[in-house]
Amino acid sequence: MDNTIVISTPPHVKSARTTKKIMLDVIIALAPATIAGLVFFGWQALVLIITSILGAVAAEFVYYFIYNGGFTKKCANAKDVCRKWLKQFDFTSVVTGLILALIIPSTVQWYEVLIGAIFAIVIVKMLFGGTGRNLVNPAAAGRVMMFLSFSLTMTSYVAANFEPISLDSQLFTGATNLSGWLLNTDNPSGHIEWIDLFLGTGLAGCIGETCKLALIIGYIYLVVRKVIKWWQPLLYVVLSAFLSVCMAATVEGAGFDISLFVDYALSGGLMFGAIFMATDYVTSPKGIYGQIVYYVLLAVLTSLLRFYTKIEVVSFVIMIGNLLVPLIDTYIVRKPFGYRRAKKAKEGK
Hints:
- The structure is a single chain.
- This protein is mainly α.
- The protein contains 15 helices and no strands.
- The longest helix has about 50 residues.
């Protein structure tokens, strides 16, 4: 009789929906933003996307190969290790590489995004045990590392017409169209039309974040496929934009201008981060009340840091929120599956 005890990580509920299928859904949802990025930013974006994906997948394979003894005994086990890697390959590294490429400017050098992809997979994901065990979102951590290491190219943007934008010292280190809504030569006031913010036309920004129409299509797909809950990104984006308007009214004394709500909501990487990064299963709370606290916290931090730093902080904020998730899950305990509250006995019985 086999008395072997098999220990595995949760969840233990069997379902037709696997990690691989969920990741494929995410890739499909990212397709519109990827296509828009290629149309807007040309072959430079294509090179970065391919490099990031291949770098992420290769880094995962090399780590897995070494960790599982692929080089031992003159690589005698190499074939078996490769077969096992292919069997467990779940496209998470593809998603990480793709997201990382979409949240950086097209001016980044190919070797910079390669370093970022390797860092995201090896340091953030694999060293902590692989899929399902990372503390923070790998793509967000990769972008933060690149921002700190390659600040010159990570803060240099080109517009969707493929022509470099001349930025002064203040706007050069700002986030896409957050710092004075960047530079718009057709409108000296710096305000960008809502239709341009929505479609991404002529807008300076990162590869996959400029076209909000493409992001909304991906958002609807994920909601329909029940990969994410519809209210999660909505709560993050709406509350963050509303708080930004309130701070502009109180701190700057500009009055409560509701038209700024759309500017804040459609600017920078807020919508992309809310849909594809903050909703990551591994690095977000498990219970419904914990999730509400989590997204409210992200919205508050994003609005505060955006307002006072004038740079894009979504990746930083998501990392901070990820690190607080264990604390949220500890103090906001969700109901156990199948739990029913015990009825109180009536007095006198």
